[in-house]
């Protein structure tokens, strides 16, 4: 299994890029363009993931999901949120069936 620490290392780079020159860094250029541009990239990568899945193209599914995770991480970083916020939410949900969770939501 590959160590999840790569996500933390990339997240640390994304934080550093807040101080970088948008001409020399793709991530800085996205921060400079702002929330709408970052959201647009997230939507584009989600759409490209769907197209790869429809084509049953395993290599492109992995590439597009990586692009989707990456741009989602840029979005988190843009709002001062971290990978750990998402991992903590996964941990909170761990073992809770989506079916049970939905039932609890609709009866509340
Ligand atoms: N993981 C990534 C990563 N994944 C994808 N991309 C870039 O995301 C961009 C958008 O992907 P697309 O497929 O939409 O490409 P495109 O059509 O050319 O893009 P647009 O012109 O539509 O914006 C491409 O330029 C990819 O190179 C990434 N850019 C950076 N990283 C990480 O972020 C770090 C910082 O990057 P810089 O800020 O550029 O130094 C890097 O060291 C990496 O660890």
Automatic annotation (TrEMBL):
Protein transport among keywords: no
Top-level taxon: Bacteria
Pathway annotation: Amino-acid biosynthesis; L-histidine biosynthesis; L-histidine from 5-phospho-alpha-D-ribose 1-diphosphate: step 2/9
ATP-binding keyword on record: yes
Subcellular location as annotated: Cytoplasm
Keywords attached to this entry: Amino-acid biosynthesis, ATP-binding, Cytoplasm, Histidine biosynthesis, Hydrolase, Nucleotide-binding
Reactions catalysed: 1-(5-phospho-beta-D-ribosyl)-ATP + H2O = 1-(5-phospho-beta-D-ribosyl)-5'-AMP + diphosphate + H(+)
Main location: cytoplasm
Known EC number: 3.6.1.31
Top EC group: hydrolase
GO molecular function: phosphoribosyl-ATP diphosphatase activity
Record family assignment: Belongs to the PRA-PH family.
Protein name (database record): Phosphoribosyl-ATP pyrophosphatase
High-level lineage: Bacteria, Pseudomonadati, Pseudomonadota, Betaproteobacteria, Rhodocyclales
């Amino acid at each position: 299994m590959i160590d999840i620490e790569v996500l933390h290392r990339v997240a640390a780079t994304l934080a550093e890029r807040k101080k970088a020159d948008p001409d020399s860094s793709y991530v800085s250029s996205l921060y400079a363009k702002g929330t709408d541009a970052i959201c647009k990239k997230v939507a584009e990568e989600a759409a490209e993931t769907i197209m790869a899945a429809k084509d049953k193209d395993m290599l492109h599914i992995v590439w597009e999901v990586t692009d989707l995770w990456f741009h989602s991480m840029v979005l988190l970083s843009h709002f001062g949120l971290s990978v750990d916020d998402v991992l903590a939410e996964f941990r909170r949900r761990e073992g809770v069936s989506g079916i049970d969770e939905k039932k609890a939501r609709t009866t509340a």
